[in-house]
Amino acid sequence: MTSSEVKRKKLTPWKLGAWYTRDEYYLLDRLIGYSKMIKLSRSGVEKYLACKRCFVLNYKFSVFPPSLPFTLNNAVDNLCKNEFDYYRKRKEPHPLFLEHKIDAIPFDHPKLNDWRSNFKGIRFINSADGYNFGGAIDDVWVKPDGQLIIADVKATAKNEFNWKETWEKYEYPKGYRRQLEMYQWLFRKNGFKVANEAFLVYFNGLKNEPMFNLSLKFELHLVRLECNDDWVEEKVKEASSLLASDVFPKASYTCDNCNYLRKRWKVSQTV
Ligand code: SF4
């Protein structure tokens, strides 16, 4: 019987006396499905929300806009993680929690290092809807009732740190909240109880100190965000379906990068 006959008669191979059992057939089918699924990241979904064309260019054609590594930010992230790990080992609250009356301690879990790794992260795979979605967290804390609090570390250097003003004036803080909401959704999908509150541990570099003395001083701000992950699943599905389709979305007319490329192209046609 040819494969088209198999399809026509809606027979599955395990019914045809193949060497594998029904369970093995479904396992194989799932594994092949997983390997065909594009691994979607938290920043990928954020890109999808910002510009669908850039998202498709990144994921399907490996075309990325130029960017520089944020090495100073990474150093701050790392030092902060080390500090939280110190209190995690001792099962004690970080002094910041006491100062801000957060009843929690850093969460200890055998998978913590995977969740914090950019190459692994925490993932959720839905083969029925065809997505494999994940993200890497900075930290997670646990309340006495077992609810997890997701935290992300940010670094900046402003003369005056004013979160309220930044929130009202710019779009990027909303992206930070979406980031936390995506992590919350991933933890919930992995079976954890998760609090709606989440925190940004914000380090503000003091750039007006009289002397450098080879040390950069920071002030620390804890920003509490009330989150709602209701939107996440739908956007993950939409982003995955766009990748599975042949659609190549239009570029935005307000994006500096594409406007630069358009103008460059026009000039190159005339000279
Ligand atoms: S408009 Fe162009 S450069 Fe800008 S985000 Fe979209 S595809 Fe990328």
- Mean pLDDT, to the nearest integer, reads 88
Shape: globular
Structural class: alpha/beta
What is the N-to-C order of secondary-structure elements (H for helix, E for strand)?
Answer: HHEHHHHEHEEEEHHEEHH
The biggest sheet amounts to: 5 strands, mixed
Helix residue percentage: 40-55%
Bound molecules: iron/sulfur cluster
Account of the 3D structure:
By secondary structure, the protein is of the alpha/beta class. It has two domains: 1-36, no CATH class; 71-234, no CATH class. Helix content is 45%, strand content 18%. The protein is built from eleven helices and eight strands. It has helices at residues 3-8, 22-36, 42-50, 52-61, 71-90, 95-99, 112-115, 163-169, 172-189, 232-244, 256-270, and strands at 39-41, 105-106, 122-126, 131-135, 139-142, 148-156, 194-205, 218-226. A five-stranded mixed beta sheet has the order 2-5-6-7-8, with helices on both faces. It has a three-stranded mixed beta sheet with strand order 1-4-3. Strand 3 and strand 4 form a beta hairpin. Helix 3 crosses helix 4. The model is unreliable at 1-11 (pLDDT under 50). Bound molecules: iron/sulfur cluster. Residues 51, 53-54, 57, 65, 251-252, 255, 257-258 line the site of iron/sulfur cluster.
